[in-house]
Amino acid sequence: METLAGRARDLATPSVRLGITGLSRAGKTVFITALVHNLLHGGRLPLFQAAASGRLSGVRLDPQPDDAVPRFDYEAHVDALVDRRLWPASTRMIAELRLTLSYESATFLGRNFGRGRLHLDLVDYPGEWLLDLALLDRDYAAWSRDAVSRLTAQPLAEASQRFLDALKELPPSAAENEAEARRLAELFTAHLRARRADPEALAAEPPGRFLMPGDLEGSPLVTFAPLFLDGEPARGSLAAMMARRYESYRTHVVRPFFRDHFSRLDRQIVLVDALAALDRGPAAVHELERVLGEVMAAFRPGKLSWLGSLIDRRVDRILFAATKADHLHHRDHDRLEAILARLVAGASARASFAGATVDVAAIAAVRATRQAVVRRGGERLPAIIGTPMPGERIDGETYDGDTEIALFPGDLPADPAAVFEAPASVAPPGDLRFARFRPPRLERTPDGLGLVLPHIRLDRALQFLIGDRLA
Hints:
Elements: H1 2-10, E1 15-22, H2 28-40, H3 49-52, E2 56-62, H4 74-83, E3 95-103, H5 108-113, E4 117-124, H6 127-132, H7 140-152, H8 158-168, H9 178-197, H10 238-260, E5 267-272, H11 274-280, H12 282-296, H13 306-309, E6 317-322, H14 333-343, H15 345-353, E7 357-362, E8 370-376, E9 379-386, E10 393-394, E11 397-398, E12 405-407, H16 418-421, H17 458-466
Parallel strand pairs: 1-4, 1-5, 5-6, 6-7
Antiparallel strand pairs: 2-3, 3-4, 8-9, 9-12, 10-11
Helix pairs in contact: 2-4, 8-9, 11-12
């Protein structure tokens, strides 16, 4: 009924709900901010056909349709990027932003009978919440086995070791006890927080609300932990208590998020920080492949008939985007796309089989570097030039945030399989070197107007995601 009501509203002005998805640190907030900034201020978007052909006549911000969802704080994020040259804070809660695009259709019927407007609803949510969707297909026993297995298979921080020691001391048949449940939940949360703070971690581990409980803090919904299980939990045991609270978490936290937000999406972009995994070696690449597979299992891809679309929604276009392409020389962008395509091959095949259109792209929503060629010992090396973040250390030197440098980032392998097959003891392919650069300084025109945030292939992403709706 909600979908049918939404389709009825679309008769006045059609809408597209675009989900911006990705693991932590993949750049969701930067992507939304740059997309909106370029559309509002007429950025260079040559591959976005509606803008390049002059058919996009206006773009404005409007109140989002869901009054119970916070607004994406676009203005604050633009201030951080443009005025203070700082990367905006990571997403902490779900947020929405609505853009209304006015355009002239490229077809005779569209020009004469179309509405000439499109609502673009951008839906942003934390990467930790995205990982929670994998819990929908796991009961407590399966989740506990996975969580404990990951815990015992990796070097542990002090907080994680304390949680593991507590589990080892706990008999599987221990009686239900609220104080013990709280103690274990606190130790487990400390472990999750330590994993999240680890610069080597590609993503936080679920449950995501343990790190962002909000008004759930202290409730039984976030007072459970995985255990060493020995068969079916006995009635009245601590394990049975934990299993019951885990089910309540899935019922009252994860499923409403899936139903009210995730399942209402029409289009999807999945942002992937593939460079972070490549920098850490084959083990991290395989872990990223596993996590992305779990995330994609929760999607609802495919096409619906005209009648079916009145009462249901499916994600009919999915773009996988490798972010931070500006950290590489442009000659390696095709190789980055090939590696990403290999990373998401399984998920792409399933989505395509269901009828969705899938693509991959190497992008930088905000380009923080520019290209150059440097000479070293008579050799010409492709390099990137940018300003490292304050405190960034490169080759033993700490930078102040004002000094520009030229950096040779290394080369990606021509064969994508190489990043999966190299032994774990081998250094990352191509001896890659990455640094954190500040957002670019935007020059002003003679009349005082600031230039638009530069990007790499943001226009290609826009064309794939909404170009057909503006045709």
